[in-house]
Amino acid sequence: MTTFVLVHGAWHGPWAWERVAPLLHAAGARTVIPDLSTVGDCGLHDHATAVAAALDCTPDDDELVLVGHSYAGLVVREAADARPNVVGHIILVDGWAGRDGASMVDLAPEPFVASVYAATEARGEGWQIPAPPPAAFGIVDPDNAAWLDARLLPQPLRTFTEPTRLSGAVDRIPGTAIYCKPQTYSFEQFGKALGYRTHALDGPHDVMLTQPEPLARMLLEACSFKIGKREV
To answer: How far apart, in whole angstroms, are the C-alpha atoms of residue 52 and residue 87?
Structure first.
């Protein structure tokens, strides 16, 4: 059976996938949705370790597809690098991603980085990034915006400053980069630079909230081939 390990982005929680997961279940897949904790001064490596632990708890004969949204693109690649014989496919959804040593502050444009540091100093006690408004994720519909605003959480700054640690094993795993149109950042280019197949999806950055059906369909289509069984 195919299991999608769905990893949420910064300021979000497992709830980000609650509109997509039932659609994958209806197609006969399983889902695992790790929680990237924002409690305390945790970092990217802590989050990658949590995802790797979630991979370890899946059935041995499952075909695993590791999906990372936004910031979690960095997280899932580090987790997959630690478990290269377990993950059959990586899918980035508007995901930040780079080579060994890349961090969010390395990949993001200077205005984004400057705003993160400014908000952290002004309202985050110097170590956590306050959540931006829903419009920053492309969510402008009043009902969806209110739903999202009530759930967003501060993000530890260290998750954005820690560089990823990659041995190169992750580069042997096939990948797909789904990028939302119109693009907010260079998500298509991040995928292409890694040799991933790229596919466009019309919708905002938080496309899992506004377009769950098209996204679920693309996740299923992206992993319909070249998924390898894990080595036990």
So the answer is: 10
